[in-house]
Amino acid sequence: MDPLKMESPGRYEIRVQGCLSSAWSDRLGGFHIVTIHVENGEDITVLRGEVVDQAVLFGVLNTLYNLRYPLISVRALKRDETVPLEQSL
Amino acid sequence: MKLFPLVHTKLNPPRVVGDLIERPRLMERLNRGVNRKLTLIVAPAGYGKSTLASEWLARCRQPFAWVSLEPQDSEWRLFLRYFVAAVESLFPHAVPLASALLQSPELPPSRVLVDTLINELNGIDQPFILALDDYHFIRDMAIHDFIDELLTHTPRGLHLVLITRLNPPLNLRLLRARGHLLELRAEDLRFTIDETQAFAQKAYGKPLDAQQAAVLQEKVEGWAVGLHLCFLSLQDPGELDAIVERFSDQRLVIDYLFNEVFLRQPEFIRERLLKTAILDRFSASLCDSLCEADASSSAMSGREFIQWLEQADVFVFALDREHEWFRYHHLFQDLLRHQLAQTLDADEIATLHRRASRWFAENGFIDEAIHHALKADDVDAAADLVAQHRRDILNADQWHVLKRWLSYLPDEVKQNRAELLLAQAWVAYYAFQLWRISPLLDAMEALLEDAPASDGLRGEINFFRGHSWFWRGDMTRSVEFLDQALQQMPRSYQQGWGEAAVFWGLAGLMNGRKEDVIRSLTQWLYYDQKPPTLLMTRLLGTLIFVHILSGNLHEAERLALELHEGGVTHGSAYTTRWASYLLGYIRYFWNDLEPAARYFETAVEGRHILHKRAAVDALAGLALTYQALRRLQDVEKTLQTFLEFTRTTRDPADVAVARSCQAHAALLQGDRQVAMQWLQTADLSTDGGVMFFWLETPRVTQCRALIAQGTHDSLQKAKTRLTEHRRMAENTHNIRQLIDLLALEALLYEKQAQTEQALTLLQRALTLARPGGWIRPFVELGPDMAMLLNELAKQIETRDFVAHILRSFSATRPASLPDQTVLFEPLTDREIDVLTLLARRYSNKEIAAELFIAPTTVKRHASNIYQKLGVKNRRQAVEKAIALGILPSSATHERII
After folding, report:
1. Is the pLDDT of residue B370 over 80?
2. Cβ-based contacts of B249 with chain A (< 8 Å)
3. Residue B502, Cα to own-chain centre: how many angstroms?
4. CA distance A24 to B884
5. Could you give the C-alpha distances from A19 to A36, A42, B66, B250, B624, in angstroms and in order?
6. How far apart are CA B540 and CA B536, in angstroms?
7. Do A23 and B254 make contact, defined as CB atoms within 8 angstroms?
8. SS3 letters for B422-450?
9. Spelled out in words, what is the top-level CATH class assigned to the domain B829-892?
10. CB pairs below 8 Å between A and B: how many?
11. Helix (H), strand (E) counts: chain A
């Protein structure tokens, strides 16, 4: 993977606990939002998207915090990485 | 129009409008924590942090102040201005120095600011609480460093409350370990089952059964906003079961709850809620103006809407006691905005921002007006606002607010409007970045080629032209431009007109129109309509400069005392420090060295408040006064401070003056080596153009050094230079410099064994010096000058002045230090300051004003003094101090003002 920089674009996947409407996408950096139901536990929401810089990413994390979604993971994605949603849960 | 550079509602704690749930367990903890240094309330949005803190403060017996921070407050100066304004809301005159420092053109190093502020806060000798809400908006590390410092050296009365969504980057570990910290976190703020029941009781008027309460508490995790939304969304607790059922295996979702509440409201209420969500604060009148001509406006006025908000117990806080200003709960506002973006299109939202901008502008809240204009993407409207209000804000002496407004605008807009170019020129003028002005003027002229400018604009441009010619030494041209400037600018534009009057006065004097200048300045000051404080200070200052430059020190002293009194009356530390500097300057040239030292010390102590160039000269004055008093260690210390100060101003001209002063002092000490080294490396390029009245003038010191060097070449060079400078001083009617230059020239001729010419020049110098009583220029030249004066005394009739000067030579001997050894515990410097003023029969209040401390601090110093001297009252203290030699026997005579 290319080294990450504060001011460079990147792709990220964020997972939080709970369900979140996809209508929030605009206010969450345009991230694609999908909530998945896990058999034995609570809902998990996966957000994926491209950020122009780290400020956008931290803005998204901040908004999730303000909306009270506990964070499960944040991961930088490789350029063409496509991961099925269910994987790595 | 009244302008509001600070938003006053940010200094009030927001109060919940509806019913409150009592939370005694938290109140109890907060009460106990008040003896610690810091209360930290940290939790995500919606846990009731601000509500809890503001309710606690309202009930607690201690005085408290509050600042609601916003993202734009994460700027060092603005943050401190709010911080200081909050402290001053409790103790109006507790932090005068810090307050004055925040007005200075360039902020002093943060070290100086922080020390000053903490020092002054320490003078407040009663407990008080200061709460900073929404501290998570602060990003500037300098602000975190300041808070850290404040918690390390906590002023004795202060208890700090930080309310924040995120853990602040402070050294909490140490505070925690020492038991200085009370922490309330989400876990503590969660509503308990009991509190949930109490909440339901308020919402429905009937209780929730224990099991329902337990389930609900678990579902919303005791989250205040969640509970509140829940209760708003349900008509009856019976419906609760359905909700609980629905979310049996999930957490309650905020937008679900919000929609439940929102969609139940009538259409016109929904519209109101959405539109007002663009506002960070609102009043009834602002609501009306925002919704004018919309469907909702006929259904309900702004006043009625606010009443509805209060009754429906929606998420709204009152921001003042009068219940004029309100804001939504931040989280609720976020949800409304989210909804707004989905309901209205971008143009419609922009229209709302435009209306808000207009209302804020009409009511004097320019920062918010600009903010909304930019939100509406209407850069031109934002630029109009700055252009329209720039004069008002400059008249209010708030040029750095103008600087802030300009920073909101994009460059291409700023460069294409004459008013904004002028605004930038004024900012550069006050920030001493004079080199920036000329390109701005050129850009302005280019713009105005096509569109003729109004008289007012022309006047300002002419001011800057005249100002520039003044410093280049062309007084004829300078006066021409400034004459026009004064005619073209209205006098009501007191800032611009006042600056023009300053330079018109100086240029006029130097152009040989002294009588004219004094007459006009006097007329403006005393006979026309009484000028406002700002203008009066400038005119008075100019009159003093004019008298100093024309050698009339007595008149200058009278006016400087008037200036000082005005500064004390208006509580302006800037003005009193200017007066101290000028009074020190006058006493120095009268060879009245002890008072000169005291005045300069006061000026130097306030160097970061003072006009930068005056501060530089005050430092030079203090070093040279100490030198004249042979207080060599103090000379060394002052020169050290001087060099450090010039490092902070980062202006090569200041460094040049500091180095020149160092050489000047070395010459007076007979240390030729230092002076000769300076002579070889001195940078005199910054001391070109017009000669002002400054005490330390590098090009004159250069001549002193050349004469001291004493070689044939150096004397020849000194002669050429002195003749040049003398011509310039003669041409610009600069009597002050002329006296120095003639005395030096006399000395030079004497060294070259041309006594006849020497005596002629000296005679001329004396004639100029006599009316104003200038002594120092002669005394400083030492035994050679004394001999020359003795020689002259044989030849002339009027010997009184010469005799007077000659007596001053012998009086300049090491001052005896007060002998304090008879005291068990010597008085501190500060206590001696207080004692000196007590001797002059100053009241505690006057002493407080003079020394920039709180009256209570004066009392404390006085009681310490009485104790150390073993006396009971101030009369005895003064007598004993004189008897012990701590005060001179003349101390009681000298009431300065």
Report:
1. yes
2. 42
3. 22
4. 80
5. 8, 9, 37, 8, 76
6. 6
7. no
8. HHHHHHHHHCCCHHHHHHHHHHHHHHHCC
9. mainly alpha
10. 35
11. 1, 4
Quick one: B250 exposed, middle or buried, by C-beta within 10 A (0-12, 13-18, 19+)?
A: middle
Domain extent listing, chain B: 8-189, 193-262, 453-550, 714-811, 829-892
Q: How far apart are CA B100 and CA B707, in angstroms?
A: 43
Question: Which residues in chain A have Cβ-Cβ distances shorter than 8 Å to B253?
Answer: 18-21
Q: In chain A, where are the structural domains located? A: 10-77
Backbone angles phi, psi at B322, to 5 degrees: -75, -5
- By the CB < 8 Å criterion, does B139 face chain A? no
* Confidence bin at B817 (pLDDT 50/70/90): very low
Contacts of A67 in chain B (CB under 8 A): 254
pLDDT category at B807 given cuts 50, 70, 90 is confident
Instruction: Calculate what percentage of chain A has a pLDDT beyond 70.
Output: 87
Task: Determine the distance from the C-alpha atom of residue B500 to the mean position of all C-alpha atoms in its chain, rounded to a whole number.
Answer: 23
B259 strand-pairing partners = none
Q: Does B45 touch chain A (CB under 8 A)?
A: yes
Answer whether A65 touches B (CB < 8 Å): yes
Q: Which amino acid is at B276?
A: T
CB distance B698 to B616 below 8 Å: no
Q: How many Å lie between the alpha carbon of A83 and the closest alpha carbon of chain B?
A: 26
Residue A9, min C-alpha distance to chain B (Å) = 23
- Of B69, B574, B655, B17, nearest in space to B312 by CA: B17
Question: CB under 8 Å to B284, separation ≥6 — which residues?
Answer: B301, B302, B303, B305, B306, B324
* pLDDT(B247) > 90: no
Structure-block tokens of residue B286: 């602002």
Q: What is the CATH number of domain B8-189?
A: 3.40.50.300
Question: Which of A17, A21, A66 is the closest to B331 by Cβ?
Answer: A66
Chain A residues close to B165, C-beta within 8 Å: 65-66
Q: Inspect the interface and report whether the beta carbons of A68 and B334 lie closer than 8 Å.
A: no
The residue with tokens 């329902």 is B212
Q: How far does the CA of residue A11 sit from the closest CA of chain B (Å)?
A: 25
Residue with tokens 């939504």: B328
Q: Is ipTM strictly over 0.95?
A: no
Q: What CATH number is given for B453-550 in this structure?
A: 1.25.40.10
Query: Is the model's pLDDT at B679 over the cut of 90?
Result: yes
- Fold of the domain spanning A10-77: Alpha-Beta Plaits (3.30.70)
Instruction: Tell if the CB–CB gap between B165 and A65 is shorter than 8 Å.
Output: yes
Q: Do B675 and B708 meet the contact criterion of CB atoms below 8 Å apart?
A: yes
Q: Which residues does chain A have within 8 Å of residue B254's beta carbon, measured at their own beta carbons?
A: 67-68
Q: Return the pLDDT at B251.
A: 63
Contacts of A42 in chain B (CB under 8 A): 249-251
How many whole angstroms separate alpha carbon B523 and alpha carbon B509?
A: 16
Q: Which phi and psi (to 5°) does residue B341 adopt? A: -65, -25
The pLDDT value given to residue B870: 77
**Where is average pLDDT lowest: B196-210, B368-382, B721-735?**
B196-210
